[in-house]
RNA sequence: GCCGAGGUGGCGGAAUGGUAGACGCGGCGGACUUAAAAUCCGCUUCCCUCAAGGGAGUGUGGGUUCGAGUCCCUCCCUCGGCACCA
């Protein structure tokens, strides 16, 4: 038997034993309350780095904690296995994406197993296998039949490097591709969309979700709800069909201040509304706009640009003639692509008016307005002026009155619009689930019949990116027969966004073996919703948003009976290394393997929890981990070397009492900290406990039985954090296998309570003395004691006592009169 | 520009409005050793002092309070998100 702590040996041993005994396998056992603890599954990039461990190890600790607390815990793991890097690897290294992905999974699974988590590997889910993506395709068909999937031509985000379209959510920061950082361009393409906008309103509702405020805010901003009115401005133009231009405004109360109308350069009426003599100038401007990148166009702080079309509309409320301009700050995709400009009350419109010397008319008076021109736009509510019959009304009432009038006269109506666009799910790439659609010259768009699923990804496709789907060139795949008329037909060659795959994987974990359905409905009913979902915040408006949409759609289709997938969400922070987020693309990854080999998985787990609060992340520091490793060694020595009480007739009852107090105080603290994900302070209190145990051991002042009890509690508290070491020490001290099937210790509140406290004595708020007193001390006793202290006397001497403040069990503050100046 | 998180020793970080710096790293000193490593023990915010003791101190400047790292206001910096959305 090894006498020194040898993590390599014991970790391997227990991992094999746990697997052989199936101790972490889970079933729908109703005797214990269920708890679904889910960690975002990793993309199969090749290696897990310390950043992955930071997401996974603490969540495993929490899942183990809940398990010991008596919950029936489902804590599964799988792989998000479709995606571009697999293809890029294929292109760069000549290996098939399937082989690359499966090799990576092999390696990552090995790494994950070395962590010693409670994953039930029978439930593993791999999204790129036909058993799985068959159902991803099946959901597409369900959405199609429910009217939630449609095909449309639209200007879409195009990544020239990835050679594929991207969803709006995948364009980040300054208009760059979320995956590769390339500047995204626009392309007009026929694509498949999911009608996520149908759920815009419901997606705004986070009222039953225990989620971080900032994620909820980001989702709300992403939906971008605006309430206002759509108003028709009459066209004063001969010879065109349209009688009016519709604008959207959130401030119908400012309509009397409209001094020009703005259209997006892409607005369909622009060419018809351009006066002959302005044609050249307008066309030149439009051409200039086209040359601007999306990012340039949306960036703030650039000078306003635009041209006058040479035509006019009439303001329906006052009949005024209003010139029509085009400008690139009006976006064709938002609202109606047309804006009524009110320069007095909108910053951008004012800038535009000043640049082009257009009139500015105040129609909402600020509270103390003198009637002068405003130097800056006034965008708040106020009193309406220069507004005909509405003048004098508070603008909030004017808003209502004008809307009512517009609706009565049918000049406009109240409207709500959203910034959210439908979810573009087509990708012109190989390594994804094929969209199960067939195009027939006779029958048009025909969905693949359910029985024909999966539409298998042909293994032999040429997948070099060409800007078109690689599947297009795979004749055996493309050519098929129409399911309706049996005539010759072509398959859709685009694949689905991989976020489709990750929108339902958490359902599959409940029943991965199910063959005739995506999941076993009873098991989903048992386990879902996920009780705790942990992962990085980078998915706020992507994965987390899509998954919510998916569940709402499945609910409406009748496949699930709940509204939200993730009841509670927790975002861990980011692991920084060399000043940057650790990631393979940044080339600053630290592999856990060498640390696991050298110091053990328990040490790596422990160190990651010790760097700081989980939600804040932290800097990976090589030298920090040795602290945890040394501590685990001390733990080993503490438990494996014999304790012998000193030879005394009776072991002092006072010492035993204090010992019990420390034990229960520690249980209380560790339990509370684990519940709050405060792993760093939990470890600190376990360390303090071991420091205390060492002292006790040295002095031998407790009985043998109490010592054993303390070790017993300590190992139970250690078990979630260092599962291997705890199991080994548990076994070595003759306790029954397995520690991980033991109940979490309960603390005795009486014993955990402090009996003695250090009373702080302050004079005028400054610490001057401290004294240890029984916790039961009364106010009068405490004050008397404080005033009687020798050291305090020297401060009080000769000064006037104004007040004595007593804070129970904490402080006596003696307030003296300030010194009179001479 | 707006929203959110954060700013505390040499470093990572602790602190229900009540002892600032728990716990760990690093450093210094000591024990063990022929020696080193490992381990163990002690010290370690800064300044004055042999010491006892005293003073200063949680990004900046104010305020509230008997008492502020913590609450309020001002400003500065770092990180994350959003950003011409009518």
Any overview of this molecule?
There is one protein chain. This protein has 822 residues and is α+β, with helices and mostly antiparallel strands. Among the domains are: 145-201 and 427-499, no CATH class; 225-418, Valyl/Leucyl/Isoleucyl-tRNA synthetase, editing domain (Isoleucyl-tRNA Synthetase, domain 2), CATH 3.90.740.10; 756-816, Roll (Ubiquitin-like (UB roll)), CATH 3.10.20.590. The protein has 27 helices and 32 strands. The strands form nine sheets. Strands 8, 9, 10, 11, 12, 13 and 16 form a seven-stranded mixed β-sheet that branches. The protein has a four-stranded parallel β-sheet with strand order 2-1-24-25, with helices on one face. A four-stranded antiparallel β-sheet has the order 4-3-7-17. Helix 2 links the parallel strand 1 (34-39) and strand 2 (72-74). Helix 3 (84-93) crosses helix 4, helix 18 packs across helix 19 and helix 20 (625-640) runs parallel beside helix 22 (679-699). The longest helix has 23 residues, at 653-675. It is flat and about 115 Å long. The termini are far apart. The model has no long low-confidence stretch (mean pLDDT 90). The structure holds one RNA strand of 86 nucleotides.
